[in-house]
């Protein structure tokens, strides 16, 4: 694929993701999947709440961050710069989009490097696909002086792309493990919006990855985006597990890797709900993009301040002074999640 076609594809992803969110195709899965048990006597003050948590050897002041989207095209670099500035001012972590394009065309690396220049102290995730070599993983991390690496797995998306664009072979586990064992910074394996199953958690438990991002269904849907790009007639819109379903799967699989939740996160209640379902960190991509493009960078900055403020109130409501207290919080699954649990609870997973 030529540089121009690759850049153009990144821009199409941006504009179609925006269209997807503008048309309201997203479903807020996290907050609607549970009901909090009333706790009107929490015996706690908002001043006692501390939202920070330690993960990957780093103290995250807030449990949410800006998830991977772009870089490598003019439009993508501009968006990344705006996001990097907001991440720096809000003290939020941030992931860049896939650096494949800059590994192939090193002259495009500068656009990614600027993310670090605009956010020198921040926690930044590098990002590559699961087929890349250890050498490329090292280059991607070096490009940004990244604190961690995300390896995305996007089988559903690759298969709905044309033969000339999409991968057709998916022997990834050994490669992922090799990178995780040797890279020297934490490696997170992330889905991009189709969610994860018990089998996947068991597979990943046998690797050296430091964390798993369940990338649940309900937000940005790359099966839809690729269809809109005219890549396919194959409809995978209904394929996958939502964020809450994926986190239930993690529990059923007795997953013991730290979890990150993405997938239609668009409110402070979504963040709390994802943490109650077992995620440590929570991230958001499509919604962040839609606020940035529709309302501007100041509005996005204000949104993050609002989420922090609301999350302190929500922790107070459930009686949690800190992240570890969330495991004591009572809540009830909604009907469809109860049904899901019934269907999935006795699965025998043989690898
Ligand atoms: C425009 C756009 C581009 C994306 N590009 C990447 C990418 O390059 N690498 C990656 O790991 N994920 C990528 N993603 C996936 C997101 O990181 C995230 O997993 C997915 O969008 C689900 O989260 P959401 O519902 O909050 O959008 C992209 C998402 C969007 C919206």
Automatic annotation (TrEMBL):
Reactions catalysed, as given in the entry: isopentenyl diphosphate = dimethylallyl diphosphate
EC number(s) per entry: 5.3.3.2
Cofactor(s) the protein requires to work: FMN; Mg(2+); NADPH
Matching InterPro entries: Aldolase_TIM (IPR013785), FMN-dep_DH (IPR000262), IPdP_isomerase (IPR011179)
Binding site for FMN: 68-70, 98, 127, 190, 220, 285-286
Highest taxon above the source species: Bacteria
Domain FMN-dependent dehydrogenase: 25-100, 158-328
Ligand binding (Mg(2+)): 158
Magnesium recorded as keyword: yes
Keywords: Cytoplasm, Flavoprotein, FMN, Isomerase, Isoprene biosynthesis, Magnesium, Metal-binding, NADP
Summary of the function given for this chain in its UniProt record: Involved in the biosynthesis of isoprenoids. Catalyzes the 1,3-allylic rearrangement of the homoallylic substrate isopentenyl (IPP) to its allylic isomer, dimethylallyl diphosphate (DMAPP).
Quaternary structure, from the entry: Homooctamer. Dimer of tetramers.
Entry's family note: Belongs to the IPP isomerase type 2 family.
UniProt name for this protein: Isopentenyl-diphosphate delta-isomerase
Species: Lactococcus muris
Primary gene name: fni
């Amino acid at each position: 694929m030529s540089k121009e076609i690759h850049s153009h594809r990144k821009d199409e992803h941006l504009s179609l993701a925006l269209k997807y969110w503008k048309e309201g195709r997203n479903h807020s899965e996290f907050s609607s999947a549970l009901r909090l048990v009333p706790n009107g006597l929490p015996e706690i003050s908002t001043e006692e709440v501390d939202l920070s948590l330690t993960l990957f050897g780093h103290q995250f002041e807030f449990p949410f961050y800006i998830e991977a989207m772009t870089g490598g095209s003019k439009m993508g670099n501009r968006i990344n710069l705006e996001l990097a500035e907001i991440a720096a001012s809000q003290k939020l972590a941030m992931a860049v989009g896939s650096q494949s394009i800059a590994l192939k065309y090193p002259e495009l690396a500068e656009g990614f490097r600027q993310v670090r220049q605009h956010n020198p102290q921040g926690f930044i995730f590098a990002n590559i696909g699961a087929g890349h070599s250890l050498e490329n993983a090292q280059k991607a991390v070096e490009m940004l002086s990244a604190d961690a690496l995300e390896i995305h797995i996007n089988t559903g998306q690759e298969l709905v792309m044309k033969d000339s664009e999409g991968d057709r072979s998916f022997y990834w586990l050994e490669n992922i493990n090799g990178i995780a064992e040797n890279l020297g910074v934490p490696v997170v394996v992330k889905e991009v919006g189709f969610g994860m199953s018990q089998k996947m958690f068991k597979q990943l438990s046998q690797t050296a990855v430091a964390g798993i991002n369940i990338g649940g269904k309900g937000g940005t849907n790359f099966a839809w985006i690729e269809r809109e790009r005219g890549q396919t007639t194959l409809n995978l819109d209904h394929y996958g597990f939502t964020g809450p379903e994926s986190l239930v799967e993690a529990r059923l699989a007795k997953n013991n890797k730290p979890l990150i939740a993405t997938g239609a996160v668009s409110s402070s209640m979504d963040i709390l709900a994802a943490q109650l379902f077992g995620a440590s960190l929570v991230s958001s991509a499509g919604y962040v993009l839609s606020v940035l493009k529709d309302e501007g960078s100041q509005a996005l900055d204000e949104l993050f301040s609002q989420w922090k403020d609301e999350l302190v109130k929500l922790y107070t409501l459930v009686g949690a002074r800190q992240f570890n207290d969330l495991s004591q919080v009572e809540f009830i699954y909604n009907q469809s999640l109860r049904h899901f649990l019934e269907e999935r609870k006795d699965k025998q997973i043989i690898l």
